[in-house]
Amino acid sequence: MSVEKIQRASGPVWRVRWRDEQGQARSRVVGRKADALALDNDLNRAKRLGASAPVANQRETLAEFSKLWWARHAAPNLARHTLESYASALDVHIIPRLGETRLTTLTTEMLSDMRADMAVAGVGEQAIRKVLTVLQSILERAVEWRHIESNPVRAVRKPSQHRTRVVRPLPPKTIEVMRTYLLATDRQADATLISVLAYAGLRPGEAIGLRWHDLGQRTLLVERSVAFGQLKSTKTASTRSVRLLAPLADDLHAWRRATDRDAETDLIFPAPDGSPWNADRARNWRKRTFADAADAAGVPNARPYDLRHSYVSLLIAQGATVVEVARQAGHAPTMTLSTYAHLFDEDDGADHRPADDQIRAARLAIVSPEVSVLCPRPGHELTPDPEQHRISRDSAKPTPGFEPGTPSYELLICRAFAAFTGP
Length: 423
What we know:
By secondary structure, the chain is mainly alpha-helical. It is built from 15 helices and seven strands. A three-stranded antiparallel β-sheet has the order 1-2-3, with helices on one face. Helix 3 (80-98) crosses helix 5 (125-144).
């Protein structure tokens, strides 16, 4: 190991030379003699103690190291959807801006300038946050693997992470209209899946990962999820049990009696061949089946994930605490409070009502043996408010989604529940 002075036009710098464990010649240039001597002392000490010396490939670029990071860390450890998100951040923002920059020359100031340039270019705050998160992961591994001494991204301020869309849970009556529509069109499995999402609060991937042996007498066990056709652990890599509401238990038992795949280890909501849903099937269900039901209920912009919020609102309305809601939903109490604070505020001082009763009341409001908005009995006809009910009995327009000449949505519902309730 040695320290030598190099005279440059901008002034003197100092080069430290040494050989690594493989005998390869290494060097590093620093601006001050004191820093060079300190580095030389560290290298000598590491050699005496048998520790690895830092690797300093002065010509290694960020793009080159990113490939190593991807192969050694990202691909083996990250979920597929996370990899897709990280790849987009690399391809669109990081590599075009910093790819040719040498790893050892990256500074906090340089990265702060990049953040400012992205903001000026109109890149959104969440996209900037994602880019800085990916960069921090890359350079953290670079420190661990001794390609650089410190991570310059740590000191760069990231945009705050905040929810851009206020949670607006769908009320039980809306959920029941969606279920009724699917039942009336002979889609019991889809109607039951709606129930699981709305009345157990499962994430969509968790719901389609359920097996029949997860259904207990009083709880649902949530210990796996489905992503891209593969079973995996839940989002939080933990197992939880969710209290089984009585109306949901009825729906699940009815579906088990109707399906041919009712063995304990069978998936409750399998693909036609019994396997987990792949990405295409999940996408098609969201864009077709769920979208049809949401449109029928008058909420065309609803998403499957909104049903999870509906479950949380049921728990809050029956008086559950923040900790109880977080445990049932499977996330941290701080996230529960930040996401649903407005629902807790709205419930403050209100009369509490069990979730089971809220669901039963909604079902009775949709179709009652005596009075039904959608299919009233003779002598009990109601005139629905057109602002509250998208489907009017006096309307001659065909129901969207049905071809001319086929039974209307309303007629299908009447037929289905006439058979259920009797004359």
